[in-house]
Design a protein that fits this description.
Largest sheet: 3 strands, antiparallel
Keywords: Calcium, Membrane, Mitochondrion, Mitochondrion inner membrane, Repeat, Transit peptide, Transmembrane, Transmembrane helix
Organism: Psylliodes chrysocephalus
Number of helices: 18
GO biological process, one term: calcium import into the mitochondrion
GO molecular function, one term: calcium ion binding
Order of helices and strands: HEEEHEEHEHHHHEHHEHEHHEHHHHHH
GO cellular component, one term: uniplex complex
Helix content: 40-55%
């Protein structure tokens, strides 16, 4: 009973976290009531002369707004710590309001942001709340997290508009311009004629939610990649290292959470990690875990490098899906041998026999020695998104039920 009360309190605390979305009165948030708890829903009234338009936020816009804890000049931003929490946590920590930054705060951020040659897989953890990230950078970092390494070269070439194998600050900022134009097109906002003297940074969308407001701010990502003066060029090797470090940092956080500072995790921990961010409800998750417990025969410990390699494989899940489709068209079930072969094709590295056996023990429904590949691929694609996918009816009573189920699922996985 005490556990249930604690879970209920956690959900109410999270739902009570009302964040100020905009300082402009043209946008008025609507609210639904859950007992004594008011929760902001995803639709906003836009007052325009005599008409009222409803604006619906995307799942990523909502998530950024929920986790962003700082604001500067009317625009909301994330700290590095906010970003990590938005990837790992289901809901943001309760807070009364966002912190308002001034120019002194920005100067402090600029002076303490490390250069790219000192980049590491602990960059975001070291910076904690001493940093500032825009919404478009949030989208950019998400893309890095869920893409395979082969996609990094494609992304770099898109930035490299003049083809000199280097990316400068202005070329990098074009991605923000693209995101902004997409945002405007979706909301039917017409472009104003740009001033020839204006820079790229001065041509951002001026929306009223503080997501894409026009601004001139040297963010932590810009300073880290291009230096405090913005005169450092980025080559592919340094960009690739930055991207791999970001992926590794999230994996390290997740691994340590289960390993309790030990160098390895158990098979059961590994199973729990794989199922953690999936669409399975508590009962379904328990079914997988209980079935796995009955099948475990060897006490095998998974190292971080093995865990990291498997997660890199998940980033290549589309390639794996295509490879598996060849077998399924031929009506050939997927054995451990075929799975390991497809794994090597996708990653260029071999998966340990014991780890492959663990995967089959989790996802072999009938215990016939073959992978239930449709369920495996669907769940792993879902896990890869880590809450980035859109979910319907996630406000009001439905949000409370979802929150409680997730809190209970987390409690089960950790106890």
């Amino acid at each position: 009973m005490t556990t249930i009360i604690k879970l209920l309190k956690n959900c109410f605390a999270k739902l009570n976290n009302l964040n100020r979305i905009s300082t402009n009165r043209k946008y008025v948030p609507l609210y639904s009531i859950l007992g004594a708890t008011a929760t902001s829903i995803i639709v906003y009234k836009i007052k325009r002369s005599r008409s009222v338009k409803l604006l619906k936020l995307t799942s990523r816009e909502k998530r950024f707004i929920e986790f962003a804890s700082i604001e500067f000049n009317g625009q909301i931003y994330m700290t590095p710590q906010d970003f990590l929490e938005s990837i790992i946590e289901v809901e943001p920590k309760p807070r009364l309001k966002r912190k308002i930054l001034d120019h002194k705060d920005l100067d402090k951020i600029k002076n303490t942001t490390p250069p790219l040659n000192k980049s590491s897989s602990s960059l975001f953890r070291n910076l904690e709340n001493n940093g500032i990230m825009s919404y478009t950078e949030y989208l950019f970092l998400i893309c890095i997290l869920i893409k395979p390494q082969s996609a990094f070269k494609i992304a770099f070439n898109l930035f490299d508009t003049d083809g000199n194998q280097k990316v400068d600050k202005n070329e990098f900022l074009l991605i923000e311009k693209i995101f902004s134009n997409t945002w405007k097109k979706k909301r039917n906002i017409k472009d104003s004629k740009p001033n020839n003297k204006s820079s790229i940074m001065e041509q951002y969308v001026d929306d009223e939610q503080g997501l894409q407001r026009k601004h001139i701010v040297d963010t932590t990502i810009l300073i880290h990649l291009f230096g405090p003066k913005g005169n450092v060029d980025l080559n592919f090797d340094t960009f690739n290292r930055f991207a791999l470090n970001l992926q590794a940092e999230l994996l390290e956080i997740e691994f340590v959470e289960f390993s309790k500072d030990l160098p390895t995790i158990s098979e059961l921990d590994f199973a729990k990690i794989l199922l953690r961010y999936t669409y399975l409800d508590t009962d379904e998750c328990n079914d997988y875990i209980n079935r796995f417990k009955k099948r475990v025969r060897v006490n095998y410990r998974i190292t971080f490098e093995e865990f990291k390699l498997f997660c890199q494989f998940l980033n290549n899940i589309d390639d794996f899906s295509n490879a598996i489709r060849i077998y399924t068209l031929a009506d050939v079930p997927i054995s451990i041998k075929k799975f390991r072969r497809a794994f090597k094709i996708c990653t260029g590295k071999s998966i340990n026999k014991n780890l492959a056996k663990i995967v089959f023990d989790i996802f072999d429904e009938n215990e016939d020695g073959f992978l239930s590949n449709k369920e495996f691929i669907a769940l792993m694609k879902n896990r890869l998104q880590r809450g980035f996918m859109s979910h319907k009816n996630n406000r009001g009573w439905n949000k409370f039920k979802k929150c409680f189920k997730q809190e209970f699922k987390t409690f089960i996985l950790f106890h």
